[in-house]
């Protein structure tokens, strides 16, 4: 029955791909999703967390419930695939496969609405703004789980590092917390030929970069996991002027809240020490963006059991240092985040690459996994 759904869903996915929309601007995408859900007879709620859509499907008499989530937004990247359905919006591109996630969850809604092989409520969450803007956080803040209670919530993401047909998850951490920082070092500025009269913000920045890169190696236990990366340095406009200001920016990725605290504290102390040593002023802007994505152990086991009925299931050996705002949903409701392999035999293009495209060959497997999760959790009898 699911195979009958694939051709129109592939067409739908490619239409979404050709008309990508950035976070909190997914108006066309959300409208098309709501239209499809209403045609299936679902109860539909729009405008949740900005442009989020929720479809509610009830069957039988049980009060049990489950949530299934797909993200909708595109990335601010110029597509370079030259596909016939390539993005028609310059600088916006479904380079993370969210178009495929939407199609898979719609397919699950179509199948479950037709088969009715469950007893309880399935909530289909179509989430905006996953790419750095915290759409899941906004949906939760607007009472997502109060309005649509769930005993479990599951999120599925395509994963080019795994072969097509493979499904993986793990108990505990599966994606990292993501923080960002910017440190501004301010001196006075002056002539490059008279450095003794001018506090050197560039020299201070060089020292700062070196010391920041020692935090993980010297402040964090070898048994823990963390990444601190400097990704931007800005300062100066010409060859003969010592600039008055230099900024240093980067990201921190962790899995443990205590490790996260140690890194932020060390970063602030190092910035203050460098500023004092070089007679400049340091301003630190440290933002904790996404928490770590932590799977509930029992929910992860349930996901693996469901996955074994439809594909090659495996326990992911280690978490990824990329981040995911599904973490906010997991803070509010027990559940698990799941990777769906999509690599072809000849290899696969990584996520967030301008040549990436979702592999339509795994669309059916993703639908079957969603269906299996719902039918197992809401089994009749």
From TrEMBL:
UniProt key word Hydrolase: yes
Gene3D superfamilies (alphabetical): 3.30.70.360, Zn peptidases
Cofactor dependency: Mn(2+)
CDD domains attached to this UniProt entry: M20_Acy1-like
Residue span(s) of domain Peptidase M20 dimerisation: 180-272
Pfam families cross-referenced by the UniProt entry: M20_dimer, Peptidase_M20
InterPro entries registered for this protein in UniProt: Amidohydrolase, Bact_exopeptidase_dim_dom, Peptidase_M20, Peptidase_M20_dimer
Protein origin, superkingdom: Bacteria
GO molecular-function term, one example from the UniProt record: metal ion binding
Cofactor, free-text remark: The Mn(2+) ion enhances activity.
UniProt record similarity statement: Belongs to the peptidase M20 family.
Name used for this protein in its record: Amidohydrolase
Lineage: Bacteria, Pseudomonadati, Pseudomonadota, Alphaproteobacteria, Sphingomonadales
